[in-house]
Amino acid sequence: MGPVSTEGSVALDGAWTRRWIEAVAAEVSRRKAELTALDRAIGDADHGENLDRGFQAVLGKLDALDDGATPAAVLRLVATTLISTVGGAAGPLYGTAFLKASMAAGDRDALDAAALVEVLTAARDGIVARGKAESGDKTMVDAWTPAVEAASAAGDDVRAALAAAAEAAAEGAIATEPLVAHKGRASYLGERAVGHRDPGAESTALILAAAAETP
Amino acid sequence: MGPVSTEGSVALDGAWTRRWIEAVAAEVSRRKAELTALDRAIGDADHGENLDRGFQAVLGKLDALDDGATPAAVLRLVATTLISTVGGAAGPLYGTAFLKASMAAGDRDALDAAALVEVLTAARDGIVARGKAESGDKTMVDAWTPAVEAASAAGDDVRAALAAAAEAAAEGAIATEPLVAHKGRASYLGERAVGHRDPGAESTALILAAAAETP
Amino acid sequence: MKKLINDPGKTVDEGLAGFAAAHPDLVRLIVDPPFAVVRADAPLNGKVGIVSGGGSGHEPLHAGFVGPGMLDAAVPGAMFTSPTPDPILEATRQVSAGAGVLHIVKNYTGDVLNFETAAELALAEGIEVQSVIVDDDVAVKDSLYTAGRRGVAGTLLVEKLAGAAAERGDSLDRVAEIARTVNSRVRSMGMALAPCTVPHAGEPSFQLAEDEVEIGIGIHGEPGRERIALEPADRIVDRLIEPILEDLPFQQGDRVVLLVNGMGGTPQSELYIVFRRAAEVLADRGIVLARSLVGSYVTSLEMQGVSLTLLQVDDDLLELYDAPVQTAALRWGR
Amino acid sequence: MKKLINDPGKTVDEGLAGFAAAHPDLVRLIVDPPFAVVRADAPLNGKVGIVSGGGSGHEPLHAGFVGPGMLDAAVPGAMFTSPTPDPILEATRQVSAGAGVLHIVKNYTGDVLNFETAAELALAEGIEVQSVIVDDDVAVKDSLYTAGRRGVAGTLLVEKLAGAAAERGDSLDRVAEIARTVNSRVRSMGMALAPCTVPHAGEPSFQLAEDEVEIGIGIHGEPGRERIALEPADRIVDRLIEPILEDLPFQQGDRVVLLVNGMGGTPQSELYIVFRRAAEVLADRGIVLARSLVGSYVTSLEMQGVSLTLLQVDDDLLELYDAPVQTAALRWGR
Ligand SMILES: Nc1ncnc2c1ncn2[C@@H]1O[C@H](COP(=O)(O)OP(=O)(O)O)[C@@H](O)[C@H]1O
Ligand SMILES: Nc1ncnc2c1ncn2[C@@H]1O[C@H](COP(=O)(O)OP(=O)(O)O)[C@@H](O)[C@H]1O
Ligand SMILES: [Mg+2]
Ligand SMILES: [Mg+2]
Ligand SMILES: [Mg+2]
Ligand SMILES: [Mg+2]
User: Fold this and answer.
1) How far is the CA of A15 from the CAs of A5, A97, A111, in angstroms?
2) Which residues of D touch C236 (CB under 8 A)?
3) Roughly what angle, to the nearest 10 degrees, separates helices B47-62 and B199-213?
4) CATH classification at residue D214
5) Which of A129, A190, C77, D44 is disulfide-compatible with C83, CB 3.0–4.6 A?
6) pTM above 0.90, yes or no
7) Which of B46, B96, B128 to mutate to test the interface with D (most CBs of D within 10 A)?
8) Helical H segments across B43-180, by residue range
9) What is the ipTM of this complex?
10) Cis peptide before D275 (omega within 30 of 0)
């Protein structure tokens, strides 16, 4: 399969999903130290390391997938691999997100804008169900919820929806900075967490930015 | 008893012995860090602390002595106090030195030059008997032996004998610098002890310098 | 960073390999999925299995407590990172002997979620599992607005007493109840003089000035209540023990187990200086020192510091505390 | 200098007070003359008494080894400084039960001289005393031109095996002979990553650059063989174990006890990484690992580093090693 034009729309099929995940793995690897530094300030200095371990494991398994694998099949592989390799809080939370996303994708060959919104919503809801964080608790939910809302407001161009989700997630991550944390390790710091960005919100923004940029 | 003239000769009686030991205690206290620093370089960084603990204890006990105590009585008190408070290598070695010195002083009321040489010789021999160091082994013996020899060559003026002993001990301490150690902790260093002065030789020089300066 | 390691990425693997090689009489090491340390003679017919685990770097917790009278399995994650469900599930299988399995989980989001998943998977295989969450750290406010208290050195006492109950043949319900009772009566608080460095991170987890200490430190170097200027040990002990005593509260006439726990890089002589003052405070309050435990048991790599733990005991709990234990890090009785 | 202490001059006193308060079932503390830690139930009729001691700062050595099956008394000196004869004599009196007393002395000039004086004074009181000098450190050349080898972590094994022999009722001659045999078959070597600071000195005992380690370090921070650039743990283990193996020498088919000893500030996970490689080297040489002991037993305050000790054993020595021991720091058997 040749390179896909970065202009106009794109089919969010299994091959795209795979390219997206490869891009996430590359970005996580590149920005590992930065994510870990965010976690050092208000957590335990391992978020970058955790995600990198997980996505490198995913890379190692992608090859074994059928060429014709559906988006759901790719997402499911990501979910199970993250669950069994990441650990910590991010492992089960991202694992659940990808698992619920995979279930929402169903047997579709490709996702249109409506399906994308369903998939993103399912991911977010999975995280909330597992972690019980509310908006404003200074967690990855603060990146996911604005992303879901922006994607659903973006109309039915998938590329526009992805771009809107990525932008909203990035803004959501920045918006965690003034907050006091109510979940996760940062909650132990009380007022001392103020002024620091939540690492999980930042990695969520990274994941969605990679989606927006994946041709 | 009033102050004694620093000019001319002096009677090395019990009162003098007491003043000498008080001067040693003051000097050890003042130069504690320096002695410990020498020991840090080639030992275990406690020589100043050890001697200071011992001589402070001696100070506390001197008052209980009779005003008319003989030199031997003062030396004996120093010996037993050092033995029970200093510990380490220096405790038993200086303890033995003062004990043997006390025995050599006998029941004399004051030491003349000949008696002084006997006393110094006994002290040195006590150290050698306990520690089995030879000259050139980079220990306190390298200050004591030249001191004994210089005192016995000084004729029968006690002040001249004390001055000669002090000078020889100081030179002996300096002369330990180029040596490799064969006894004590410094012997573990092999060639690496070269260039450092032996702390015990330096404290010996201190003790004898205090004697030469005691009025 | 100066450490006795070969490769920052292999410290957990190699440390566990060494542990298993040193204690073949006590444990076997499961390497697939990586890792679980299982009691050598597990499963023990009809005995409730006890599994604990969590991020590595707190040694001897948990692997050092696997053996007769304490844990049946320990599941170590990556450095300071909760293990994934796979090895927890495998450990649960290996110690399941028909009487059910208890999971003892320190209260961190990651540990809770990963053990939760493993418990669901075990249940789906027909293994009855109960979970007890340990949250003894009074440094963190237990409110709706935090992830709740952390599990710290008190975990050791939950593991010891639950382990003794399982060893004497108590049912899963009873063992879980004992574990919850111990958790409800144990309180801890810690402090750090100097941070530790996670090998793969390569730099200290936090920074303290030459005259600063952190009061209320977590066992992953998470900040606690406050950062203050260094004080004499006795004053620091007072700062740790007051919030503990007030919390339960512990009262005159209570009998307690006092655990003075080193954070990994603290010399034993300092732990006993701390113990001396803590025992003095208890005596002043009329609280009875029933048992004492002093050592580096729940650590944070080479962090320098100490934590205090008090457990309120009655005759029943004391009997469980005194019951024989035979593990790499804790041994007494027969 | 950041330490959990109140007053640099009182660390030994307060640490011992805490130790005695934590372990009243095992020991009593003699404070006049200061200090000796004596087994709670001493003297034991007809049993050979075993006394050891030396400078403080090496905890749990020696006080942590007082109890049934090991020492009858420990005499701690000032920090890193041999005790004076007075408390050694007092300890000797308190454990003398008609069968004589063994002094176990690490080979440092100060320890040897002070124990020598105490033994003479005890003899003058009619107490039969024998002395065994421990000198297991292969880092230092044993020649006429040094103070001889230092006593380091092997001391623990001399104390354990002699203690077991005394506990089973062996005569003074026999217990002393066993102690000498153990000393003749045990060899150690250590290294440091980072120095310790003696409280009253206020500054580190030596300096190491960020990439330097000292091979052959003594337990008072005395320099050893060489200062080299930091290497992987496995290479460091090779540097320590080779001189040990060559020295006795240890040969194919020999059975050994391997002790991996932390210097005080070393996390347990690193000790097991070291253990892993040491066990591998032994296996390669066909040397049989009969028993393993891993922990911080003979320390140097908060120094970071490790030492390796090998003891060549036969059935008799192994029986003594396995015999029950009940002390604050070492417990097994019944
Ligand atoms: N209860 C929760 N709900 C949602 N997200 C959470 C929750 N707890 C933690 N997180 C997210 O997980 C991130 C930390 O992940 P990571 O550092 O990998 O795990 P750990 O905290 O176990 O070390 C936080 O930045 C936060 O975004
Ligand atoms: N065998 C010996 N003979 C003579 N003097 C010795 C001997 N061993 C050590 N010394 C002296 O003792 C000094 C060290 O004393 P100190 O530091 O107080 O004791 P320690 O070595 O036990 O710490 C050395 O500098 C040396 O002069
Ligand atoms: Mg983290
Ligand atoms: Mg010294
Ligand atoms: Mg973590
Ligand atoms: Mg000394």
Assistant:
1) 14, 20, 12
2) 4
3) 30
4) 3.30.1180.20
5) C77
6) yes
7) B46
8) 47-62, 71-85, 90-105, 113-131, 141-153, 158-174
9) 0.93
10) no
